[in-house]
UniProtKB/TrEMBL annotation:
Protein name: Lipoprotein
UniProt lineage: Bacteria, Pseudomonadati, Bacteroidota, Sphingobacteriia, Sphingobacteriales
Keywords per UniProt: Signal
Signal peptide: 1-22
Keyword Signal: yes
Domain of life: Bacteria
Species annotation: Pedobacter hiemivivus
Length: 101
C-alpha cells in the first residue's frame, strides 16, 4: 500500500512539472544585460529589472535567486508572464535560468 501511494505521489509530482518551451515559442525570452533591484517604480510588479536592447524588463523568479546577480552582466532566460505589461509598464519575465555573460 505504501508503495502505491509513493508511486502515485511521484507520478503526480512529475506530471505537475513544467518544462522550458522550445526556442520557437513566442513566450520564451533571452535577454542580456545588468540585473538591478526594482527600487522605486511606476509599476508594482517584479523584484528586479534588466535593461536590454534599450528596453527595461521587470523580472521575478522562483527558481533563481536574482539577488545573487545584482549589478552583474548576465544572460537571462525566461518566460513572458501573461497579462503584462499593464498601465504602460515593462514586459514581465519569469526567469528560469541565469548565466554569467
Amino acid at each position: 500500500m505504501k508503495k502505491i501511494v509513493l508511486l502515485l505521489v511521484v507520478g503526480l509530482a512529475i506530471a505537475g512539472c513544467s518544462t522550458v518551451k522550445s526556442g520557437t515559442d513566442q513566450n520564451l525570452v533571452v535577454l542580456q544585460g545588468k540585473v538591478e533591484p526594482l527600487g522605486m517604480s511606476t509599476f508594482q510588479y517584479g523584484t528586479h529589472v534588466i535593461s536590454a536592447a534599450d528596453k527595461i524588463y521587470a523580472l521575478k523568479s522562483s527558481k533563481v535567486n536574482l539577488k545573487d546577480y545584482e549589478g552583474k552582466e548576465v544572460t537571462v532566460k525566461g518566460l513572458k508572464v501573461a497579462g503584462y505589461p499593464i498601465d504602460g509598464g515593462p514586459e514581465f519575465i519569469d526567469v528560469q535560468e541565469v548565466t554569467n555573460k
